[in-house]
Specification:
The chain is built from 18 helices and 4 strands. The protein is mainly alpha-helical. It has 2 domains: 242 residues, no CATH class; 256 residues, no CATH class. The strands form 2 sheets. A two-stranded parallel ribbon has the order 1-2. The protein is elongated, with a radius of gyration of 32 Å.
């Protein structure tokens, strides 16, 4: 299943992990898609914390087991501390105080006195719980000095709880001495256990606060570097885990998918490995079937037979954006094919963009196609008649067709939007050949944050859609010189569109290279 289209069919925990990781992927690769205007990367950290939940889907079950084990652990600790024998209490307190020290040590300098106290052996005493409660107060006071102000009320509440039970414990005149001791011990044991649990939880919260403070002191450039590194690490770990088997990561399986996919390259076989996989990607983008990357079914030990346009696991988080690029490329071909039906004279750079001879045709057609690409509601599909009306309107500026000629022109528009049309196939071959050649050229740097987004693949307008897509109007800078116009795509609007999609594809290719350098 494609996680972007089938999150609802996945277990909730796995869906959340995938969604968070994909959000971080977009934040690292195309921040303009997820960062609202006027906001910064830091403002989005709450939606995608850099310290993620356990990235492995296998940990979903593990987390539930861990919760149950922790509950049993604390219950056993409570039972041991409720024993009135000091030696039993001390033996258990040694391990508990060690856990507390491990939890809070990142928040203090190594030579801090509270860490030194916790590192010392638990001294023998007739009242270990009372001594421990006093030590816990010292820990809380030390934590309060280092905590963010928003945590003060929580710490003050824990300190108040430690003070409150001491008076009632001593006053039990109606109970027998042994019963009173047992009751007091149980109450104090419960208080100590609950306070330790709260301190460990508070320490984790304070670490997150500290991380946020450090992030807040970074520049946007520094923060973006952190996001990129975290996105790469988490994305690769998650993919290897999803494609793993029997406790092993899926490195070999992922590599096998990659090689099998490359081996399907048709036609010319480049000598350079990089050129080979890039041309294989362009071959996938040239297909009338939408690109996708499918999560393997856990119940099956055999690889499913795929009849779609499957990408290897390395593209798992890039596939939704590549689907948009695929649709965008098809939109460019459709625009060029429709332009060829108008017989309008070529538009030169000196001509105004909206002159009276109908050169606004490309703007109007592209507006329709762009709406089709970006449309979230599949029921709001652009009708073929809208394209036909625009073509007829432009043709009338050159010559007035009679009824029969207009009918033939509308039929030609219909054919252009169908699979297998000769004009479409010719223009697509020219475009994709140029794109493949251009992408294989080495680049020095591509400084662009914008990317195009979507149209359902296959030109049968109105079928299933990809996800929400961003604006595509941004101009991107590249170290690669401007390409020679592709024959049939000489219109300035189409030239700009091709450069935009090349910038986007280079970004995706660069991401795959840096994350999966061992595979590509």
């Amino acid at each position: 299943m494609d996680f972007r289209q089938n999150l609802s069919s996945l277990p909730l925990e796995l869906a959340q992990i995938l969604s968070q990781t994909y959000f971080l992927h977009l934040l690292a690769t195309e921040p303009d898609i997820v960062i609202p205007h006027g906001k910064s990367i830091l403002s989005m950290m709450g939606q995608s914390p850099l310290k993620p939940p356990e990235p492995q889907p296998a940990a979903i079950f593990h987390d539930r087991v861990k919760t149950a084990v922790h509950s049993a652990f604390w219950q056993q600790a409570l039972e041991a501390l409720s024993d009135p024998t000091p030696a039993v209490q001390i033996d258990r307190l040694k391990g508990l105080l060690f856990d507390v020290r491990e939890a809070i040590s990142p928040l203090f300098p190594k030579n801090h006195e509270i860490l030194a106290t916790l590192s010392a052996p638990v001294p023998p005493t007739a009242s270990p719980l009372i001594s421990t409660s006093l030590l816990l107060k010292e820990i809380l006071v030390a934590l309060r000095r280092r905590a963010a102000p928003v945590r003060d009320s929580t710490i003050d509440g824990l300190l108040a709880d430690l003070d409150a039970p001491l008076s009632p414990i001593a006053a039990s005149p109606s109970a027998s001495p042994s019963s009173a001791i047992k009751s007091a011990t149980s109450q104090l044991a419960l208080l100590v256990v609950n306070t330790m649990k709260s301190i460990i939880s508070l320490a984790e919260t304070m670490k997150a606060d500290l991380n946020q403070f450090v992030l807040g002191s970074m520049t946007e450039t520094q923060l973006k570097d952190v996001v990129v590194q975290q996105a790469k690490k988490r994305e690769k770990e998650l993919v290897l885990d999803i494609w793993g088997d029997s406790g092993k990561d899926g490195r070999e399986r992922v590599q096998a998918h990659w090689q099998n996919w490359i081996d399907e390259l048709e036609g010319e076989q480049p000598s350079q490995p990089r050129d080979k996989w890039i041309r294989r990607l362009v071959q996938s983008l040239s297909s009338t079937k939408p690109v996708s990357c499918t999560i393997p079914e856990p119940v099956s030990t055999e690889e499913p037979v795929q009849d779609g346009n499957q990408l290897p696991p390395q593209f798992f988080f890039t596939a939704p954006r590549l689907l948009y690029a695929q649709n965008y490329l098809q939109a460019l071909v459709v625009a060029a094919a429709l332009r060829s039906l108008t017989r309008l004279p070529a538009l030169s750079q000196s001509d105004p963009p909206n002159d009276s001879r109908g050169h606004d045709f490309m703007d109007r057609i592209w507006t329709l196609l762009k709406a089709e690409i970006d449309e979230e509601d599949p029921s709001a599909s652009t009708k073929i008649i809208n394209f036909a009306d625009e073509v007829v309107r432009a043709r009338r500026l050159v010559s007035v067709p009679d009824e029969q000629e207009e009918a033939q022109l509308r039929a030609a528009v219909d054919r252009t939007l169908q699979y297998g049309d000769a004009v479409f196939l010719l223009l697509q071959k020219r475009l994709m050949t140029a794109v493949a050649h251009r992408l294989c050229e080495p680049t020095v740097d591509v400084a662009a944050d914008h990317a195009p987004e979507r149209m359902q693949t296959g030109r049968t307008l109105g079928a299933g859609r990809a996800d929400k897509r961003p604006r595509l109007d941004a101009q991107a800078t590249s170290s690669v010189p401007a390409m020679t116009p592709v024959k049939g795509f000489e219109e300035p609007l189409l030239i700009r569109g091709i450069e935009d999609i090349l910038t986007t594809l280079r970004r995706h290719i660069g991401w795959i290279e840096t994350v999966w350098v061992d595979s590509s």
